[in-house]
């Protein structure tokens, strides 16, 4: 049996995924979580073979969850199922050790087959996204991404500095670098472009 944990913040989607996977004789959904932190606790408690997670969730994103799994060397494969067909997300997911990346509009049987493939040690990546992911490199470093994300959420340089334990000057430097790298006029445009590309 392939023991699966689901992490998805939309209850309807979480229920549908769970019901679909339970139809498979070799897949056992051993738990589900509505946000990233709950998923992290469940991962440690249940020790599933595969974590199926969305990207955007409260607490921790699916990408941050994957990074934690990788950092803590958990024996759990991560499969992302998302609506975001953004090459930047896929690229970051692969860097975080994700073994599967599928879009939510894929046929249901494709998910079950992807879980089997990943469980056997393979990879299951949406082929069109895989091609695009390597044609558009993410120019931002982790700190620039972090600062830009907070700026896009409406925080001032002072608020960001306080949250990240940085000086306001350092925050302004990171924002300036991000704006320059993205070739736009201000932090809002930088945030929009980076989100659109899947770099945040």
Automatic annotation (TrEMBL):
SUPFAM superfamilies: C-terminal effector domain of the bipartite response regulators (SSF46894), CheY-like (SSF52172)
GO molecular function: DNA binding
Residues annotated with 4-aspartylphosphate modification: 54
Name of the protein in question: Two-component system response regulator DesR
Organism name: Dokdonella fugitiva
UniProt xrefs under Pfam families: GerE, Response_reg
Residue intervals of the Response regulatory domain: 3-119
Domain HTH luxR-type: 133-198
Superkingdom of origin: Bacteria
